Structure formats: C-alpha cells, structure tokens
Amino acid sequence: MIEEATKSTSERILDAAEDLFARQGFRGTSLKEITELAEVNIAAVNYHFRSKDALIRAVYERCFVPLNEKRLRALAHAEQAANGAPLTVEAVLRALFEPMVRAWITDRNFILLVGRLQHEPDSELGGFIQRLYQAMIPRFLAALARALPSVPEGELFFWTHYLFGGVVYTLLNSHDMQRFHEGQNLLDTPDLFLDRLIELGASALRALAPTELENADNHTPGHSVHEVL
Amino acid sequence: MIEEATKSTSERILDAAEDLFARQGFRGTSLKEITELAEVNIAAVNYHFRSKDALIRAVYERCFVPLNEKRLRALAHAEQAANGAPLTVEAVLRALFEPMVRAWITDRNFILLVGRLQHEPDSELGGFIQRLYQAMIPRFLAALARALPSVPEGELFFWTHYLFGGVVYTLLNSHDMQRFHEGQNLLDTPDLFLDRLIELGASALRALAPTELENADNHTPGHSVHEVL
DNA sequence: GTCTATAACCTGATAGAC
DNA sequence: GTCTATCAGGTTATAGAC
C-alpha cells in the first residue's frame, strides 16, 4: 500500500485506487484524488486503464483472484491429505475462512472492498465478481456435501453463507469490539478466533443433520492452512 | 416508499432520499436525483433540511429509532412475561433479530442503509448511529449475561455480534440464494428462518459455557414478538 | 509515456422573485 | 413554501504538445 519509487505508474494507481475505494467507495472517490495520492498525472488513469469503471474492475481482480486461489489450493491440499476420504466440516471451513482472516491481518482494504460489493448487486462489477465466486462455490459445496451427506445442499449453502457473512461482518466492523465493549477481544488473537469460529461453524452445520454420525477419524481442529500458502 | 400526493414535501424528500441512499450511497446520490424522484423543487431540500448531511441524519433517524424501540420493547415484554426470572437465550435473540427480519420483509431499504453504515466508521453520522446502539447493547448484554451467567460478557458480546452480522449479511445478500443455488430457500419463509436462526444462535452461545445447565422452563422457541408490535 | 489545457457536465448551496 | 437563476467549484474524459 505504500507507494515506492520503484513501482510502475499503473501499480501506483492501483494501490491508491484500492485504498481510496475501500475507504470512500467508487462514487465517493474521484480520479483526481487517486492520481494525487499515487503522485501521477491525472491523465495517466485514462491512458493505462480505459476508464474509471475499468480501473475498479482491475482493483477487484487484483484482490480477489489471489485470495480465491488460496482458498481453492487450501481445499485441494486438505483433500490430498485426506487421501480420498471425505473431509471433516472443520477442514472445509478452515480452507474457506483462514485465507480471508489472514488477508485481513495484513491488509484490511480487502474486507472493506468485499463490503462495498454488497451494494453493487446489479452492476457490471457485481456480475464480474459473481463469476469469480461461481468457480469456487461448487467446489466447497461438494466438499461440504461429502462431509455431511444427509444435509440437503440448499441448507448447507444457506447456513455456510450465513457463517461466511458473520466473518465478513465481524472483520468489517472490528472496531465495534473496542467501541462497545472494553478489554481484549478475539480479533487480537486471530488463530484463536479461527479455531473458535470453525468449532462454532462446524457444530452449527452438524446440527442440521441430527442423526448424522460422520467420520471423525481425520478430525484435526488445530491444523492450519497457513503452511501451504 | 411510494410517493403519494397527500404526503408533505419533506416526507416525499425523506422517502426519495431513503430509497436512493440505500441503493447508491450518500456520495453516490445527488440532491438533484432526490428532488427529481420526490417530484419537488431542487431548492426544497435546503429549505426543509439545512444541508445534505442533515438530510442523511434525518433519513437514518427515521429508520433506526423505531426499530430499536421495537427491539427494546420486545425485550421488556419478554422480561415481563418471565416474571423476574432470567430469560432464555432464545428469548433474547428473538427480541434482537425478529424486528430486523420483519422490517426487512416490508422494507428492504432498511438493511441496505445498515450496510452502508459499515463504511462510515469515523464520520459524524457513524457517531450518531453509535449513540443509538449504545443505548441498546447494554440492555441486551445484561439479559444474555443473566441467561448464561458463566460466560464472560466479552465472549457473549463478540459472538452475538457475529450472529447479528450473519443476519445482516444474509438479508443484505439475499439475492445470493437465487444466484448461486437454485430452488427454494429459507428467506422465502421468514418465520422458519427466524426459528432456525434462533435455534442455531442459542446453541452456539450455549456452547461457550459447556458446563452451563441454565433454566429451560420458560423455553418457548415458537413464541413470536410479532404480537406485541 | 507523460504532461497541460480544456471541453462538457454535474455538484451543493444560495439569493431573490412570487 | 415554492420557484428560477446562478454561483463557485468539482467531475470524467480527451485532444494535442513534448
């Protein structure tokens, strides 16, 4: 996020745009502000990117593509370790949530940009991001369905989406913790937060199938996706 | 949301502003758009409200105050029914969530406006809304602490905030259900959604206190706050 | 590739007639 | 209370010199 002299003009523009879009939104940020923060000429945006809309898409692509790759790689890695056996719910949720939480630690812009997207449901940008997610969701849903075969996929999707939303909201509104309740909170210890989150999420999804036994032999709650990244 | 000829100019402006702010944000909405949708003169905004900022606060006040009143009234009603005994976790969560879900059914602008606030953390508006919530949170936290006395309040707040966030995200991104998974979903049956949500949330909060027994005598999962409104 | 200059337009806010 | 007219400034985008 810090503009270095070595970075190219287009990278400096992307850095500045990411920062300002995250904080102020798309419409709330002018090209003038972006180019001033990036310390480039105002005309450079229209030269390197075609328009403001194209710049927005470039910013999102740079954020989302690597994160979704990490998630899919973490899932593939867990499946490889399971050696053909169905994954535990915990393993699937960890592959889904850990990259996002780790990204949040190093770069809080990402979660802000995710939040911004909730208000662009019909735009061209929304469809663009939708395509990115649509490649990921079937993979994770299939893994969850193998972990909990007796739960209808529709319910699995609905409540995993709910749990996912809680993570986004919690990270997005992390200041609420200091604002409304003094003292330490779980976000100060992301590893502990992840463990508790996965524990809570897994028990919630398991509760959808009261009679489900599920194979618990390769249950590794402390296992981290961190090492594969 | 429908402009009627009988409504006053300031009400027409508030309706139009609420609609456009919800869809486009504050910075993304011009006074010209608002006055055109409201079918009033452009100068009327500065006459009835002092400025655009004051209009935004008026819109939020009109949305938030009644909802928080409903939540507090539902909690007070449940406590009255419990006759001095601690409430169940379910009863507290229902008082917290039901007014929001019911508001979402009739007016989806509200949840969009809530979402917009996540990106105004430092502004004067953020502080304004914070004061509204700050009146509510201690009341609900106290009720939860009575229901689960062995759980530290910090953890109760953190995970209730998480569960709350999941509701906001789910309602805000309700289109995801149709987008990513065909067929019926829980949001088509809000009463069932509420029951499942409260069930899931209560078991999640109870899991924070493994040794907790808790009084389950006035446990009424199907009880609705609807009748008191 | 980078700059200046400028076009064409929209913004919030206000003054003053009715 | 409601209107027109207008202010000073900001907006995206582009044309053309270097």
Share of residues in strands of chain A: under 5%
Distance linking N and C termini of chain A? 21 Å
**Helix percentage of chain A:** 55-70%
Which quaternary structure do these chains form? homodimer
The rough form of chain A would be described as globular
Main sheet attributes: strand count, strand direction, barrel closure of chain A = none
Order of helices and strands of chain A: HHHHHHHHHH
Largest interface: A-B, 51 and 51 residues
- The count of strands of chain A amounts to 0
Unreliable stretches of chain A: 216-229
Structural class by SSE content of chain A = mainly alpha
Radius of gyration of chain A: 20 Å
Question: Quick check: average pLDDT of chain A?
Answer: 89
Number of helices of chain A: 10
Defining key terms:
homodimer; 229 residues; DNA-binding; mainly alpha; globular
Could you explain how this protein is built, in words?
Two copies of one chain form a homodimer. With 229 residues, chain A is mostly helical. Chain A is built from ten helices and no strands. Chain A has helices at 9-24, 31-38, 44-48, 52-82, 89-106, 109-117, 124-147, 153-172, 175-180, 190-206. At the A-B interface, helix 6, helix 7, helix 8, helix 9 and helix 10 of A face helix 6, helix 7, helix 8, helix 9 and helix 10 of B. Chain A binds a DNA duplex (18 and 18 nucleotides) through helix 3.
Write the layout of secondary structure elements.
The structure is a homodimer.
Chain A: H1 9-24, H2 31-38, H3 44-48, H4 52-82, H5 89-106, H6 109-117, H7 124-147, H8 153-172, H9 175-180, H10 190-206
Chain A binds a DNA duplex (18 and 18 nucleotides) through helix 3.
